[in-house]
Specification:
The complex is a heterodimer of chains A (116) and B (111). Chain A has 116 residues and is mainly β. Chain A is built from no helices and eleven strands. Chain B has 111 residues and is mostly beta strands. In chain B, strand 9 and strand 10 form a beta hairpin. Chain B starts with a strand and ends with a strand. Classes of the chains: A mainly beta (116), B mainly beta (111). At the A-B interface, strand 5, strand 9 and strand 10 of A face strand 4, strand 5 and strand 10 of B.
Amino acid sequence: EAGVTQFPSHSVIEKGQTVTLRCDPISGHDNLYWYRRVMGKEIKFLLHFVKESKQDESGMPNNRFLAERTGGTYSTLKVQPAELEDSGVYFCASSHPGTTGANVLTFGAGSRLTVL
Amino acid sequence: QKEVEQDPGPLSVPEGAIVSLNCTYSNSAFQYFMWYRQYSRKGPELLMYTYSSGNKEDGRFTAQVDKSSKYISLFIRDSQPSDSATYLCGAGAGNNRKLIWGLGTSLAVNP
């Protein structure tokens, strides 16, 4: 079974530019999550998709961040325009439908974003 | 106050040592607790999760939860160099799928 795949693994952009991160979850996993880890801080929840619907986007920092999951398969997270404080590692995770209670997530390796 | 507190270390132990990793939490609503392991440049991978107070054992790993004192522990017996990684504790409640994470503790097991 293929795992959660994220692309790119590392992106270096200048402040004001746009970056799009992509996540391919495990096939059949309806639940897809985005998390972010800023250096020296805890991993923080950004949002949760169930299939193509946003279930919870309470962790999105501001309207410069846009997440989509068209067709309920892969997801993209766009940052436009990027700011210095957006630098960090963006993790995608997925879980099987019907998972109740404990949130057993399978994570991707992360996309490291550096904004200069 | 952070909802989940975890000492980031680093922690360095000799091979074969018993390792104790700990977290505290403040939110009484948390119902399940997890430990993830993260190797460098990789995503976190689930080690263990538990719903209740008490111990849960899986091979060399034991997860312990004390809800009365809001304390979470992970014990690693006969530690190996391959256990060198960052260990993250997490907590959640009900159907809320938003894990609340600790900072992670960096562990080095020296041969």
